[in-house]
Amino acid sequence: MNTALYAHISGCAEAWPWPDFSPAEVACKCCGELYYDPESMHALQALRTAWGRPIRINSAHRCAAHNRAVHGALHSRHLKIAFDCRCASKDREAFIKAARAAGFRGIGRYSTFVHIDMGPVREWAA
After folding, report:
1. Given this model, what pLDDT does residue 11 score?
2. CA 126 to chain centre
3. pLDDT by residue (tens digit) across 12-33?
4. Phi, psi angles (nearest 5°) of residue 96
5. Distance from C-alpha of 66 to C-alpha of 60, rounded to nearest angstrom
6. Taking the complete model, does pTM exceed 0.85, yes or no?
7. Structural domains in the chain plus CATH codes
8. Following CA atoms 111, 34, 80, 96 in sequence, which dihedral angle do they give, to the nearest 10 degrees?
9. How far apart are CA 42 and CA 21, in angstroms?
């Protein structure tokens, strides 16, 4: 399965094998554009299975207009797909450890969420 960009969730003709996440959860919040990336979604599903409880996604894919509107980085991983997951501070380090084990390489720590992506290995705190 290759990556693909769909103008809207409704145009996604691919099978959706990730039972704990819907296309709407990972599509752009402003327009429904969907970046279909099996590698990222398999890692997200593996994380959910290992975590053993729901993962709430604040932001995943963003279209260029939405990324500008939220003052996202010019080359944000969200322009393809990355996940900002709500996470209580008491669970943060355990969540990050599980995310790494699931294959995520980009890890960002924020006050109310953890950013995870399949980009180059890097970590930061905001």
Report:
1. 87
2. 18
3. 878 899 999 999 999 999 999 9
4. -65, -40
5. 11
6. yes
7. 4-125 (3.30.1380.10)
8. 40
9. 11
